[in-house]
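Review form for a predicted model. The reviewer records the input and the model, then writes brief findings.
Reviewer: anonymous (R2)
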Amino acid sequence: MTHFLPFLVTAMNRHSTFMCRNRFSLSPVALVLTVCGSLLFVSGCGKTPAASFRPNMVEAAKQRLKPEQEEQVATILEAMFGTPDNPIAMPETGLDIGKLRLAAGPVHSDIVGRKNGLFREHCSHCHGVTGDGMGPTAAFLNPYPRDYRPGWFKFKSTERADKPTHGDLVTILNNGIYGTSMPSFELLGEAKVDALVEYVKYLSMRGEAELNMMRYFFELDDEDEGKLPETRDFLVEEILLPVAERWQEAEDAVIEVPEMPEVDLAESIAMGKELFYGNKANCVKCHGVTALGDGQANDYDDWNKVVKQWSDEVQSSHEVSTKEMSREEKAEHREYLARADKALAGDALEPRTIQPRNLRQAIYRGGRRPIDFYYRIHAGINGAPMPAAAGTLTPDEIWHVVNYIRSLPYEFDGELGADRSMVARDRL
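Model under review:
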């Protein structure tokens, strides 16, 4: 087996050299000026340093990675995915490098006046350059911006465990997410929205590859000497392809939505209400007897739960007695706690609980079309405590629950208020 990483890095360097030698034909004077300008750019002269991806320090500290192991992961990631200014799309990812280049890099216009750096301009202040949900404004927002690295997405047309389709992400960017700080970007136009969606998929693939590598260190044998294999078989076949293929298979995982049953709407709403409060659907458990979202509190979505659970573990480790530990074990314990505290303080946001949706406000983050409700009830909401009803409810029963939920903002004292006027007090 050949070592894949050195080959890839060498290929990248050769490509850069070829471009430099063959793209331009410069006179000696122009060449000197170009070299001098390059040196001034590299040396700084007050310019902002090139952007870099933030390593997943929470996972690194959690997995107790050594500095050399973190460095190896960072080196492999750069070889496989490039940098925020110069992304790489290996063929196995199925990503469009042209779209990535339009979205990546600093904000600037190209030679024909086309705006580049779309992600940095429109998204990074919330989602961060790395897509880790740690942008400059993230801590002030509720809910927090999405962290793309685990590869979880809430609002989509596919089954719970599957990736969203390209169209699902386009819909989110076009519509925004009502009730959050995520705005609509429809005015950017189709080409730019398409490029941003491609870049979100790129950041998610990169983040999952990083997590996979960090977690793989526990599977190494003594003969591996604490290092990941740098072969194509490992880096592409075991780390990259499982992630990329799940994105490529998303179009085949779209939920089949049957026609709404042909029954009187009031009758469907009544059946949906019975399911909502009954043991079969048991929606009341979380959304509450008044459907105000007060049935179950103090739970976390998966992004916050990971940090919360590990934070609790670290706190428990602080309270562990070290009397029976050897000197080396004490030193290792102190080092782990110091790294963990630093990662939690600087590379994670304070965990927040997630509240079930208040169904009477008509604020629906995943869309308000009947089919959007069907998707969320059928598959649940990935990354959130909302469970899937598929297998518990029949398709007709799911439609009845959909109709009941859609009626809730207009209900008065348990009765549908379609035929009575709404006074100002009722609208509150």
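Findings: The chain has a mean pLDDT of 87.
Further findings: Residues 53-251 form one domain.
Recommendation: see findings above.
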